[in-house]
User: Fold MBL fold metallo-hydrolase from Alkalicoccobacillus porphyridii.
Amino acid sequence: MTWTQLPLGPIQTNAYVLANADNEALIFDPGGDGPELIQWIKEKQLEPKAILLTHAHFDHIGAVDEVRETFSIPVYLHQSEKDWLGDPELNRSSAFLGRTHITAKPADHLITKEQTLDIGSFSCKVLETPGHSPGSISFYFEEEKIVFSGDALFAGSIGRTDLPEGDHQLLLTSIDQKLMDLPEETIVACGHGPSTTIGVEMDSNPFLNAL
Assistant:
C-alpha cells in the first residue's frame, strides 16, 4: 500500500490517503480544501471507501461532507464525539475561527470500543488514545507498519490538552499504553507536522522521558 500526506484547511492539518494496489483508498481527517482534495483523488484515479476521523476538532473535519457526498462513502468517528461534527462550540471552530463555523453531518458509523475495523479489503486496529480529546482514536495498520495517530503524538511533541475536555495525564497514559507498545519501526502519521516512528519518539520525545 501507499500513503500520502496532504496538509489541508485553515491550519494545514495533515489529511492522509492510504491506497492499495487496486486503487481503493481510505481518507483520514480531511480537514479542509475539499475541491482540491477531491481533484487530487480523481487525478490519481482512486476509489475511496471511507473517511476515518481520529477526532472531531474543526481542523480535521472541514472537508468531510464534500468528500463524503462526492464519493458516496461513510464516515467513522468515536461515539464520544458524535455531537461534535454539528456543533461549532464542541469542535472549537467558533473559538478559533470567529464567525466561520465548521460543521458536518453526523457520522455514519460510531466506534464504541477498540476493535479490528474491516472496510473492503482494508483492515486495521482501532486504538483508543484519548487525552487531546475524549474520543481521540488511532488507526493501526500492522502489515503496513503505520499508525494514523491524529493529534495524540507528534514528532518531538504531543497533542495539546488545554482545550475543553483535554486531559494531559490521560494523553500520556494513552501514548504509553497504546502507542509506545507498537513495534519501534512503526511509522507515526501525525495530525500536524512531519511523520516519525515509535522508536524515534521513544528515544527522544521530551514529553515521554518520564514515562
Q: What stands out?
A: The mean pLDDT is 96.
